[in-house]
Design goal:
Length: about 100
């Protein structure tokens, strides 16, 4: 899920850089301006695709978590009927002599 978000951000940065270079009239690697615009649009479509996949996975996970039944409560253990002082850890140990 985070992979799609990372790719969406990556494609968005690349696409906006290409589109910004096209708008400012800069030449990128000697490509014709119409090809720069085409590549920028394709890269921005890839960004939108990855953001849509990230959003869908996020919604699917929320729905899956909402459909799960709540966890069952643990059964309360009853204390033993007889007292064993060797298992009573609430009292400090007597000093050793």
């Amino acid at each position: 899920m985070r992979y799609n978000l990372f790719l969406g951000i990556l494609w968005l940065c690349a696409g906006s850089c290409l589109l910004g270079a096209h708008v400012m009239g800069k030449e990128i690697a000697g490509m014709p301006p119409d090809r720069e615009l085409l590549i920028a649009v394709v890269v921005l479509v890839l960004a939108a695709w990855n953001f849509a996949r990230w959003w869908a996975a996020r919604v699917r996970q929320k729905a899956r978590n909402a459909a799960k039944p709540p966890p069952r409560k643990r059964a309360v253990e009853k204390p033993p009927a007889e007292y064993h002082p060797e298992f009573d850890f609430t009292q400090p140990d007597p000093p050793a002599s």
